[in-house]
Amino acid sequence: MNSTNEIPLVDLKIQYQSIKSEINAKIEEVINSAQFVGFKNNPFVRDFETAFAEFSESKHAIACGNGTDAIEIILRALGIGDGDEVIVPANSFIASSEAVSHAGAKPVFVDCHPDYYTIDTERIEKAITKKTKAIMPVHLYGLPAEMDEILMIAQKYGLKIIEDCAQAHGAKYKNRKVGTFGIASAYSFYPGKNLGAYGDAGCMVTNDDELAERLRMWSNHGRTGKYDHAFEGKNSRIDAIQAAVLSVKLKHLDEWNVKRNSAAKRYFFNLNDSNLVLPNIPDYSYHAFHLFVVRCENRDALREKLKKNGIETGVHYPIPLPFLKAYEKYNLSISNYPVSNDYSNKILSLPLYPELYGESIDYISRILIG
Length: 370
What we know:
Blueprint: H1 12-18, H2 20-33, H3 43-55, E1 60-64, H4 67-77, E2 85-89, H5 95-102, E3 106-110, H6 124-127, E4 132-135, H7 147-157, E5 160-164, E6 172-173, E7 176-177, E8 184-188, E9 202-206, H8 209-218, E10 223-225, E11 228-229, H9 240-271, E12 285-286, E13 292-295, H10 299-308, H11 338-343, E14 347-350, H12 358-369
Parallel strand pairs: 2-3, 2-4, 4-5, 5-8
Antiparallel strand pairs: 1-9, 6-7, 6-12, 8-9, 10-11, 13-14
Helix pairs in contact: 2-9, 3-9, 4-5, 4-8, 9-12
């Protein structure tokens, strides 16, 4: 178990120690080059984009400042904005809906699936209006959304699909990488993600050549030349140090995801006969296990018990998006989001990271069921 007898929700220090020499050498290489800003011709950025496009099984990867910007830039590059609507899950981080608003469009929330926590595909069609331009599924906690149904709905109504892959690096739906189903996808490399930078960073992935060029322009001031700009874009470039760090970590990502799945399997074995509702995974999906989320009736009391025993937990998310103060203006009813509302008081994220010791998982499990 952890030497301090304290088990964090995520341990970034132990991960760094495992790749310290690789990371330090790469950062030193960037500093010695003095090429810090993420322009298209920056070798560190170029190398990461090439590697991540290959990892994502896509033609293009365009790195940017963060995952929220990635979503907004995709929307703007697709011409989605004022007067338009985009369907997003009710159970997600605010970045999913915030980016829609920043692009000038309106987020339209759909409740989560009672078993998978991702968007409930049976509720999507009821949310579609003449103003709807896109569906944005979030592959939440590392589990792919039900993409077959989403693809059929999008085709039926002529809608774009924009995938939010911020929590699902390496996840697969029916042996196909997430992020390859829609017109484009957005990734976050926030430090705690499966593939995390040492600061903020994000990426956009697409197979569309023309869209890729617009995405790159949007993220770099609408630039066509050093001082020539086709339109007003954004300043959302990844910096070279983050790209270098991500290039190092990307080489380990598949192995880390396997270790996350091994840790999850140990939780499943230990907690199978408990009163906790464990994650439900379709046999055709590969879960990246960004988070291991359980459900229980006495969540807050159980969380306090774990805290007293040195175990950190999280809640993702305590307030469904429709009920945040930010969206009071829409006057949304709880009756339209019964699952998200009910689960918000029951979901609990347990510690999970590739370096989590088996004995630590056993200890957590004993406290949970003891």
